[in-house]
């Protein structure tokens, strides 16, 4: 079974930056559709950004202009660059993978992904 492992979480001040990484145990990143999700305490897990296996990328409107998603297939690693962080960005961030491809906001739907990492926590202080 392929495994996903997120790293790079931590505590930053508002306006700061973090770069999250998700490394796969097999050659997944280059052929699967990938996405980042986040979950704050007491809230549902929500899609943040996706990069589909055909190259399409999309970020949620709540982070548009501040977050970007990218990957390095040779390293089996997915990235989430987070700039201009706000307190409402805090939560546990998860990476996810799917064999299938999606268009538009379907790529940010939780139920469309079947492989998940354990998450990395992000806190943002004002």
Structural account:
It is a single chain. This protein has 126 residues and is mostly beta strands. Helix content is 0%, strand content 47%. Strands 2, 4, 5, 6, 9, 10 and 11 form a seven-stranded mixed sheet that branches. The protein has a four-stranded antiparallel sheet with strand order 1-3-8-7, with no helix packed on it.
Find the structural class using helix and strand composition.
mainly beta
Helix content: under 10%
SSE order in H/E notation? EEEEEEEEEEE
Distance between the termini: 40 Å
Q: DSSP strand (E) fraction?
A: over 45%
Low-confidence stretches: none
Number of helices: 0
Oligomer: single chain
- Overall 3D form: globular
How would a crystallographer describe the biggest sheet?
7 strands, mixed
What do the pLDDT scores average to?
95
Alpha-carbon Rg, integer = 13 Å
In total, the number of strands is 11
Features:
126 residues, mainly beta, 7-stranded mixed beta sheet, 4-stranded antiparallel beta sheet, 0% helix, globular
């Amino acid at each position: 079974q392929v495994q996903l492992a997120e790293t790079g979480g931590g505590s930053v001040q508002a306006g700061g930056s973090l770069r999250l990484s998700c490394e796969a145990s097999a050659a997944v990143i280059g052929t699967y559709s990938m996405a980042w999700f986040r979950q704050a305490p007491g809230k549902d897990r929500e899609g943040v950004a996706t990069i589909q296996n055909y190259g399409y990328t999309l970020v949620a409107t709540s982070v548009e202009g501040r977050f970007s998603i990218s990957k390095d297939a040779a390293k089996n690693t997915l990235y989430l660059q987070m700039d201009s962080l706000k307190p409402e960005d805090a939560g546990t961030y998860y990476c996810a993978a799917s064999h299938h491809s999606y268009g538009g906001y379907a790529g940010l739907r939780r139920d469309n992904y079947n492989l998940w990492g354990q998450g990395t926590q992000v806190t943002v202080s004002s």
